[in-house]
User: What shape does this take?
Amino acid sequence: MAAPSLRDGLRAGTAFALPTFVLAVSFGVLARSLDWGVVAPIVFSAVVFSGSAQFAVADVLDAGGSAIAAIVAAILVNARFAVMGVAVASSLPGGRIRRALEAQATVDASWAIANRGGGRFDRDVLIGATLPQYGAWVGGTAIGVLVGDSLDAEALGLDVLFPAFFLGLLIDELRRGRPQVAAAAIAVAVSLALVPFTPPGIPIIAACLGALLGLWGRKAR
Amino acid sequence: MTAVWTSIVVLAVANFLIKAAGPVLLGGRELPQPLLNVIALLAPAILAALVVVGTFSEDSSLRIDAQAAGVAVSGAAFVFRVPMLPAIFLGALSAALVRAL
Assistant: This one.
C-alpha cells in the first residue's frame, strides 16, 4: 500500500537510523551517568524526540544550571524547527490539526532529504524518513540507559559524539554561505567570552546575537 | 530529579508547538525578508555555541582536553566530507586513544 515516495523516505531514513541509534545510546548512557534514573530518559526521547534539545538539557543541568535555563537553551536550540516548519508549511496537505501532527516529522535529516528545491518538500518522504529514526532514537535511549551503569562513557570517548554531531550540522550550515560563517564566528566569540562569567545556558542564548547579522543581509538561506 | 521532569514536560509541549507553528499559522503566507534572514542564521549561531560549550566548558571554566581533541578530529573529518557516522566515531575513538595513553 505504501506509495513509492513513502518507501523512498523509509529507505533514506533507515540510513540515518544507525547514527541516530548511536547518538541515542550515548544519550541514554549520559543520562544514566547524571542520575536521571531509567524512566525519565526514555520518556524524554519518546515525547521530545530531539537529540540537540535533549543533549542541551543534559549539558545545562550537568553544569549546574536550572530547569529554566535548560528549557530556554533547548527551545533556542530547536528554534530551527520553526524555520523548517515555515519552509514545509505549504507542502503539508489537510486541515490545521493534520498539518500540526504531520509537522512533528520535521527532524534535521528528514527535512534535508524531503527538500525538493524551489521551496517544495515531499510530505511522504518527510514522514517516511522520520519513522525509522524515531524507533532508533527511543530504542537506542532505552539500551543506553540499561547498559549505562556498565559503560565508562569517557573512556570510550562517547562524550565526543554530541559536540561532534553539532559540529557536523554546523559545518553543513557554514557551507551555505558567508552570512552563516559570520554568524557562527560571532557566536563562538560570544560564547567563549561568557562561559567563565555567566550561568550555564546563557552563553548559548547570547550567541544568538550573531543571527542579528541577518538584518543587514539581503538573502540568507 | 524535578528539574529533569520539568524539562521533559515543558519541552514536549514546546517542541510540538515549535514544529506545528509554521504549518498551522503560516500556510502560504510570506514572512518579511529581514526576519527570515535572522531565523536562517539562528541555526549556525546556536550550533556554534553548542559546540563551544559542549567541548570547552567544564564547571564554568574553559579547558582543552581529550574531548576537545576528539571533536577536532571529527571536525577535520567533516571538512573532508566524511559522512556523519564515521566522522563522529573517528572523533570518539581519538578521544578514547588520547585518554588511554
In short: The beta strands of chain B are 57-58, 61-62. The mean pLDDT of chain B is 88. The radius of gyration of chain B is 19 Å. Residues 1-30 of chain B form one domain.
